[in-house]
Design brief:
Largest sheet: none
Distance between the termini: 31 Å
Number of strands: 0
Order of helices and strands: HHHHHHHHHHHHHHHHHH
Radius of gyration: 20 Å
Shape: globular
Number of helices: 18
Helix content: over 70%
Structural class: mainly alpha
Length: 416
Amino acid sequence: MPTSAHAVKTAETSAIPGQKHYLTRGTGAYRRASLALFLSGFSTFSLLYCVQPLLPIFSQQFSVSPAESSLSLSLSTGFLAVAIVCAAAVSEGLGRRSLMSISLVGAALLTIATAFAPNWHLLLVIRALQGLVLGGVPAVAMAYLAEEIDPRGLGATMGFYVGGTAFGGMSGRVLTGVFAEYLTWRPALFLIGAIGLAAAIGFIALLPPSRNFIRRPGFDPRFHLRAWLGHLKNPALPLLFAIAFLAMGSFVTIYNYAGFRLVAPPYDLNQTELGLIFTVYLFGIGASSIGGLLGDRIGHFSVLLFGLALTAAGSALTLAASLPAIILGITVLTTGFFMSHSIASGLVGKLAHGTKGHASSLYMLAYYVGSSLMGSAGGWFFAVEGWAAVVIFTLAMLALAFASACFAQQFARRKA
């Protein structure tokens, strides 16, 4: 298999129709693709979630409620959900690599612009635009992996990509918290945007051209509609989409409002201390890769069910009064969530029949709609009944996700 950039390009343009030219472990092209997708996950999630540790600051500075301050994140994820569906269609004509590159650079520049927002409403507008721009990355990245990576190693590679998203989510939260403590929140967002821009440049330099992607010039709404409806008729896939909605909704709800609980008495954490709690994302990085490897070896649904149960256990642990127990609960929840997500996203690529980009876009649509709607809804539970209500809310969602995984496993077995 050729490994140089020129050879990869030649293989792309001269491939025999219907013949697959996968990237396999041990080749230079495989290593470059893995690192590039890691950078894309890092950049996307560091830019998307960098505002999360700032929610208590926004609430105070702009005189808004906790639920209103969460709009700085929920609007981004909500518009991202819509953009993902459109991005899958656009990438069929523009190309996976080109769309991801434009999205990463644009999102980084918008994060820098957020640092200069003079008022709350303009900040929300910029964050909404950022969500629209970022839509060109998550679903398209999953489609690129499903199309270009040897299926025998897809679970491990998907886990590596999801590990990049975990590292980005951690870095964005931790670094923003530290920068905000010493420099205030505006320089913090500026620096996060600059780091995201550097990661985008690295992505563009490293990612090999697609070998198995077939460009579809023009825009045919009927083709895309048929593709989306076809995936919804697959009985297992809608259940995986439901898992994305519910698991992500639970995860973001805990992370959104844990900060409000921990900066208040009796904990009284400062921004640096609050940001450092997000280093538990390191467990998510390991869990993503380990989950993918275990799924390839012992069965994807078994690992998925275990990951969801672990997520629920972590959520329940946060009910404890002691700070170490709360941090342990967030750690367990993070580990379980990223294990579940890496497996569920990989299963979408395995179970989808053709137009994998469209299947991935539906998964990511559910993922970010869950983040946006459930993440904001959690603020109502927190305001009315406190942290116990937040945990009950997340456990109910995770119970539904577990049931969905059980039914999806039955449908997948029937089709096997």
